[in-house]
Structure formats: structure tokens, C-alpha cells
């Protein structure tokens, strides 16, 4: 019995189909036959995995992410979180405690007038004792490197810092999984890269399950597994090296090819041998040095 529980995926999406309710759809044949937002989706994520959910806009990433913490419920199929069915109303709060979500705009998630109070908020309303709140707030501040900002009002923080604060607020609640849905999309390129690295760090430090939802290939390189979506379906899965090895396919999927990948293409056609696992400029330079 214990072994069965140990091997249970944290997230188990089984044959899920979902259509957004459309007003007056009954009268509109076109809308009735419209492609569902999710179609027969199967996805298993183990506890402690770091997965990137990748695909261009409108392919169904957010819809799938919202199924993973019972914000949306499947029309067909089912979603189990640590064995709990998301349709079971009695389990939905527990599911949302386990799976925390970070959205595009951090400002929708910030509540208090001081950074440290904002992190404490979720713990306070759950009735945690003061000492434990202090410890967890301190730990969360350090985990996202914003300890020096703890006495500031959140609106004095940069976009990247505010997104870190939103992550700290979730971390303090000790979920088993964090889903970041395009959490970097309002940030500049540097802060985006920093945020992607932060997820890798959090994964490493806490062994947390991370699902990073993105349409940007360069943000997916730190994940252990990339799950590619297209038109409401999962069409490909693999390690970053496997997914990045077929650039033509990525172009077909309307994904923007990051510069290092274009560089690898040019180097290969110029006769260099570059291994598939070289995904950053530093790794590519190393490949050239080794050639
Ligand atoms: N609230 C909604 N109502 C109706 N249709 C929606 C809604 N949200 C998303 N959709 C549609 O569902 C599909 C998948 O959207 P979404 O999951 O948001 O994709 P992604 O996150 O990959 O950009 C798209 O065709 C989108 O237009
Ligand atoms: Mg989305």
C-alpha cells in the first residue's frame, strides 16, 4: 500500500477534454464544433519534478494549468492531485493548498502594505502561531533574495521584485507544487531570465514540484522535462536537449527560436559538431573549444 502511494503521481491528468462555456452556443453551429480548449490530454507529473509547459498563445497551457489546482474542472476525463479528484468539492481546498499558482501580474496577488506582511498574510489568515510565521517569512524572503526589501511597500519594488514577492508568499505556505503561468511575461528580458533561474533554484533547494508555463523556449531550458502543447493537445514531451534538437519542428509550432539555438544551427552548417545538450552561449562556447 505504501509503495503504491509513493509511486502515485502528484499530478495525474487523465483523458481530459474541456470546452469553455460559450454564451448562445446552442444557436451557433460554428461555436458548437469549435476546437475544445483541451482535447484528450494525459499528463503525469511526479512529486519533485521540474516541468516546462510550452506552446504558442492560445494552445491551452493556462487551461491545463488551471485544471491542476481545481480552478477549472474537466468536462470529460479526470484530474487527480495526490490521488484527490479535483471534482470532489470537499477536497478542493486541500488541492489548492498543495498546488500554488503564480500568474502574469504579481499585483493581483499582493495584498499588504509592507513586503514582509504580504508574505505573512496567507499564514496569518490560516491561524499559524506568530513564531512560525516569523520563521517562514524569513525563509521565504531568503529563498527569493528579497530580504533587504522586507520593510518596503510592495509598490516601491520593481516588476521582477514584485513577482519574487508573490512567489515568496506562496513558498511560505509550503505547497508541494508551484505552477507559474507566464509569470515573467510583464518583465524585461534580464528579469525574465533571473526569474527562470529562480525557479530552478527553488526546485533545487526545496525539491518542490515546478510547472513553468511559457511560450518562450529560452525559459524552458532549466526544466527536466518539456511538455509541448498545440491546439489543446500535448504533442511532444522530452528533455530540453531532445526538444531543442529539432529546430524546424519548433518553427512549425510558431515558437520563437532563441539566439543560441540559431547560432548552433549556423555552427553545424559550417561544419562544427555541437552536442544537443549545449543550450546556452557558455555551453556552446565550450563545445567549440572542445572541437
Ligand atoms: N475564459 C475563456 N473563455 C472562452 N475561451 C477561452 C477562455 N480562456 C481561454 N479561452 C480559449 O481557450 C483556448 C486556450 O486558451 P489558453 O488556455 O488561455 O491558452 P494559452 O495559455 O496557451 O495561451 C484559446 O482558444 C482561448 O481563446
Ligand atoms: Mg496562458
Annotate the secondary structure layout:
Blueprint: H1 2-6, E1 11-18, H2 29-32, E2 38-45, E3 50-54, H3 61-67, E4 76-81, E5 84-85, H4 92-98, E6 99-102, H5 115-125, H6 130-143, H7 159-171, E7 177-181, H8 189-206, E8 209-214, E9 225-230, E10 233-238, H9 240-244, H10 247-252, H11 259-269, H12 281-290
Parallel strand pairs: 3-8, 3-9, 6-7, 7-8
Antiparallel strand pairs: 1-2, 1-4, 4-5, 9-10
Helix pairs in contact: 5-6, 5-7, 6-7, 7-8
Subcellular location: Cell membrane
Domain ABC transporter: 11-256
Family: Belongs to the ABC transporter superfamily.
Structure notes:
The strands form two sheets. Strands 6-7-8-3-9-10 form a six-stranded mixed sheet, sandwiched between helices. By secondary structure, the protein is of the alpha/beta class. The chain has one domain: Rossmann fold, CATH 3.40.50.300. Helix content is about 40%, strand content about 20%. The structure holds adenosine-5'-diphosphate (ADP) and magnesium ion. The site of magnesium ion (MG) has 4 residues, from helix 3. GO terms for molecular function: ATP binding; ATP hydrolysis activity; ATPase-coupled transmembrane transporter activity. This is Energy-coupling factor transporter ATP-binding protein EcfA. Keywords: ATP-binding, Cell membrane, Membrane, Nucleotide-binding, Translocase, Transport. Belongs to the ABC transporter superfamily.
Amino acid at each position: 500500500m505504501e509503495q503504491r502511494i509513493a509511486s502515485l503521481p502528484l499530478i495525474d491528468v487523465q483523458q481530459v477534454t474541456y470546452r469553455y462555456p460559450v454564451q448562445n452556443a446552442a444557436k451557433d453551429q460554428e461555436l458548437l464544433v469549435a476546437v475544445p480548449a483541451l482535447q484528450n490530454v494525459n499528463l503525469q507529473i511526479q512529486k519533485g519534478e521540474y516541468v516546462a509547459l510550452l506552446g504558442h498563445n492560445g494552445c491551452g497551457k493556462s487551461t491545463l494549468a488551471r485544471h491542476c489546482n481545481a480552478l477549472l474542472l474537466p468536462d470529460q476525463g479526470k484530474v487527480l492531485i495526490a490521488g484527490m479528484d479535483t471534482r470532489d468539492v470537499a477536497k478542493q481546498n486541500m488541492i489548492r493548498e498543495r498546488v500554488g499558482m503564480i500568474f502574469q501580474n504579481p499585483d493581483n496577488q499582493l495584498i499588504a502594505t509592507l513586503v514582509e506582511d504580504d508574505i505573512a498574510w496567507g499564514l496569518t489568515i490560516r491561524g499559524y502561531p506568530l513564531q512560525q510565521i516569523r520563521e517562514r517569512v524569513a525563509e521565504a524572503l531568503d529563498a527569493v533574495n528579497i530580504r533587504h526589501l522586507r520593510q518596503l511597500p510592495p509598490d516601491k519594488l520593481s516588476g521582477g521584485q514584485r513577482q519574487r514577492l508573490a512567489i515568496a508568499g506562496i513558498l511560505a505556505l509550503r505547497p508541494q507544487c508551484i505552477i507559474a503561468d507566464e509569470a515573467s511575461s510583464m518583465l524585461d528580458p534580464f528579469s525574465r531570465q533571473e526569474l527562470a533561474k529562480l525557479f530552478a533554484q527553488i526546485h533545487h533547494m526545496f525539491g518542490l514540484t515546478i510547472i513553468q508555463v511559457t511560450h518562450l523556449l529560452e525559459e524552458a531550458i532549466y526544466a527536466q522535462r518539456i511538455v509541448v502543447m498545440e491546439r489543446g493537445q500535448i504533442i511532444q514531451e522530452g528533455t530540453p536537449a531532445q526538444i531543442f534538437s529539432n529546430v524546424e519542428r519548433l518553427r512549425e509550432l510558431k515558437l520563437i527560436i532563441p539566439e543560441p539555438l540559431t547560432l548552433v544551427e549556423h555552427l553545424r552548417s559550417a561544419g562544427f559538431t555541437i552536442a544537443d545538450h549545449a543550450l546556452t552561449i557558455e555551453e556552446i562556447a565550450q563545445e567549440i573549444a572542445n572541437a
